Amino acid sequence: MRLVTVRTLRFLLLAVFAVFFVAPMLWLLLAPTKSDNGLVTSNPFAFGSFHQIALAWDHLDGFSSHIYRRWIANSLLYAVSATLIVLVTAIPAGYGLALGTFRGRKTILTLTLVVMIMPAAALVLPIFLELNALKLIGSVLSVILPFAFYPFGVYIAYIYYSTSMPRDVLDAARIDGCGEWTTFRRIALPLAKPVIALVLFFSFVADWNNFFLPYAVLAKSSQYPIQVGLSNLLSSTPSFNPAVGGGGQQVNIFRPELALATLIAVVPVLIVFMLSQRSLVRGLLGGGVKE
Amino acid sequence: MSDTPVLTPAAQATRKRGLPVGGARRKGDTRTGRGFGFVLPYLPFLVAFGILPMIYAITLAFTTRKGKFIGLKNFTQAGNDFRFGPSFEHVFVYTAVWLAALIVFVVGLALVLHGRAGRASSTFRFLYYIPGALAGAASVLVWLFMLDPGVSPGTFLLHILGSHLFVESIAPGHLPFIFAMIAFWTGAGGWIVVLHGALNTIPHELEEAARIDGAGPVTIALRLKLPMIGKWIAYMVILSFATGTQLFVEPQLVNEASLGMVPDTWSSNQLAYQLAFRYGKFNEAAAVSVDLLLIGLIAAVIIVTRTGLFRRED
């Protein structure tokens, strides 16, 4: 009897938290199917109609002459190009740090770890001040290049190569006459596929969701990534900001449009999540990268 | 989905199990300099966006606009700004609330989930993890909706808490709790996964032995499992403390949604940003960001050198 109550209580606790985590997502998914008035009057979890989604999209797309598309494209440009640079630099760096014997190896490793653990936001203003001194503020590079520095990626690769890479295999390759580069490209790189997927996922998501850095270093709204664009959209909607829309500038951005904008902004993260899911499940849920 | 280093419980386990450690420098290996070429492309990024910004911010913080050294004057000047005290107070209250929630609920849920059978546990972990996809501005927007009594599915809860209008929901006194809730909503799932991974490294025999000795599930959770994941909890707390102090996007968006009722200098990072952008006081802005940088740096150094969670040498 007592066992049953404990179990029920435990399940109830887990279920309450599940509702807390999932309900807002569910609401967001359904919100664009309703009109702004419908959001107020109907059940929060009722489905409206597909027609409303199309209408919301028309309004959103019409905002400031298709700037929403531009924001998504910008985010893709920043996150994809930065992540490519991360892959090209971080995987070899992790390999070099794990198996290299050069002077300064430990210093580079420690610096990487410290910067990795430091909250990224702590470095935004210093990076802004530095870019400002270099007159790079307002340039697209002022987002991509800082994004391309991703010490966590180096650490994942380092951990993989230093725990799971049989050194004898590498030695054998060398004895067979492979140079350092060939050994890496032919042996070490193909073995690290799951790690590449992990780095790709974490780097892309970190870049996609970053708000502070682009907010600080970009000047024109046509350069904004989607996260900053969302804040721009928020300050243009009369739903949360009654001062807007009453004046001369009429915008059709209400809560359904805002919800749709938020929802679309999450889609690329979900796609990348699906693509790297197998490695992620092994790495995250299974308990790590091992042989 | 922050860039929380989630892989290390396993890496630790791997090390304990004594699997081949590749990086070990062999005795008699006299070749030096091998492998440097692989690190070379990464170095400019580490220097330009990791180390130089810190050095430059510190330099700015101790000098005048013309580059003359003035000691701590920028720090005292920024400290005397009437917004400085409140901004740090806000951030610390927020961080305290968030940390309390993390310690109680994340640890609690991780322990409860670890006692459950596989499938249900992994389903719950997945559900808790999903909101991680909505970090950044998107998560704040979702919660602005949730706090709007007009449309929120939790309107009855908002009414119980005494708010019937959106502006009442985001009253200044509520903000530290709201921001803590948003941070918890997006990040807790990730930490539960991390702690679950750490719990999985506890040898099964230990648990079995405790059970034979007559320990119930609660005793096992509190007396055996909890101490064994202690350093992971410490890691979560230190890291979250450092992250919490850097709060920026949440108050910035709420500022935009509240007609300025919430000041745009609510958090310390916002203050530093405004000092630089609106007032062009780059040296004072640098001083505030060096304050924040120090908090982050100290936390990071403690984690790297003291907790033993990160491999630095083989």
Features:
heterodimer; A: 291 residues; mainly alpha; MetI-like fold; 72% helix; disordered C terminus; B: 314 residues; disordered N terminus
Describe the structure.
Chain A has 291 residues and is mainly α. Chain A folds into two domains: 1-48; 66-285, MetI-like fold (Orthogonal Bundle), CATH 1.10.3720.10. In chain A, 72% of the residues lie in helices and 0% in strands. Chain A contains 15 helices and no strands. In chain A, helix 3 (50-62) crosses helix 14 (255-275), helix 4 (67-99) packs parallel to helix 8 and helix 11 (193-209) packs antiparallel against helix 14. The radius of gyration of chain A is 24 Å and the shape is globular. Chain B is mainly alpha-helical and 314 residues long. Chain B has a single domain, classed as MetI-like (MetI-like fold). Chain B has helices at 8-16, 36-39, 43-61, 73-80, 84-114, 118-129, 137-146, 155-160, 166-169, 175-200, 204-212, 217-228, 230-245, 249-257, 268-277, 282-306. Chain B is globular and about 70 Å long. Chain B starts with 7 loop residues before the first helix and ends in an 8-residue tail after the last helix. Chains A and B meet through helix 1, helix 4, helix 5, helix 6 and helix 8 of A and helix 1, helix 2, helix 3, helix 5 and helix 6 of B.
